[in-house]
Amino acid sequence: MADDGPVLLTGASGALGRVLARGLADAGVRLVLSDIAPFPEALPRNARFEAADLSDGPAILRLAAGCRAILHFGGVSVERPFEEVLGPNIRGLHHVFEAARHAEARVLFASSNHAIGFHERATPLDVDCALLPDGFYGLSKAYGELMARLYWDKHGVESLVVRIGSCLPAPVDARMLSTWLSPDDLLQLCLATLAAPALGHARIWGASDNPASFWREDDRARIGWAPRDSAEAFRAQVGHLRTDDPVTERFQGGAFCAQGYTRRG
Ligand code: 15L
Predict the structure, then answer these.
(1) Which residues belong to the active site?
(2) Which helix (H) or strand (E) holds 186?
């Protein structure tokens, strides 16, 4: 993809957003950063910041105008009541894809393993597995994945759906030996998404090269990305860190599945 315009990064003030803003700027990407919260550190070079609420359609259209890509990391990122998820993750997602359509920009949609969280850990999954959201947050990610598909089929908006596992500096429990995505592998994925000559609509598992992964086939070959890190290096530190909650330990989504769980049997 020709470097003929800046890239809009939503959710720029969050933990992942800040890492990506720095890394992308260091790689020479011109950035429009946005978040509902102020950017809490010095702006990277070649970046400007504009605060915006994802629920504000005209603001998102304005921000994306002239951008070649939208890296969409904004919105609610943990399980919350439906009414709190609705504005940023449901309406906001529509605004992001409408903005991409108008700007003729490609989209990287940061989905989550919580779109498929109710699959059992013992069941290895390919990326085309059934969507089994584990809460309203996961449901909004499943909706986002389908939104990406709709905008490709109907409007030709290119997109990469990344079903992110656990993107933290290091795994913090045994589950993350399966789900961890290193921040550097994520950065390389964003750069590959921007560089891919043709993206079409692709879906990949956002996880490092973890031998204990729950996940198998996806579309990564199409964008030329291969993770370089592995959670296995942390096994000695976190391999014993399990909960005593059977729902958390049974399903891929872990503690998100157990939140508000009332099913008997
Ligand atoms: C997510 O989607 C969350 O945004 C993050 O906070 C982690 O909890 C991660 O999933 C996970 O499943 O570990």
Answers:
(1) 137
(2) helix 183-195
Residue ranges lining ligand 1, Cβ < 6 Å? 77-78, 112-114, 166, 179
pLDDT in tens, 59-113: 999 999 999 999 999 999 999 999 999 999 999 999 999 999 999 999 999 999 9
Question: Do β-strands 69-72 and 7-10 pair in parallel, antiparallel, or remain unpaired?
Answer: parallel
From residue 25, alpha-carbon distances to 5, 45, 146 in Å are 14, 6, 30
| 3-state SS, residue 258 | helix
Which of 161, 166, 205 gets mutated to test ligand 1 (max ligand atoms within 8 A of its CB)?
Answer: 166
Residue 1 has pLDDT above 90, yes or no: no
Phi/psi of residue 236, each to 5°? -60, -35
With H, G, I as helix, E, B as strand and everything else as coil, classify residue 23: helix
What is Dmax (Cα atoms) for the chain? 56
User: What is this structure's pTM?
Assistant: 0.97
* Distance from C-alpha of 13 to C-alpha of 54, rounded to nearest angstrom: 14
The mean pLDDT value for 190-210 works out to 97
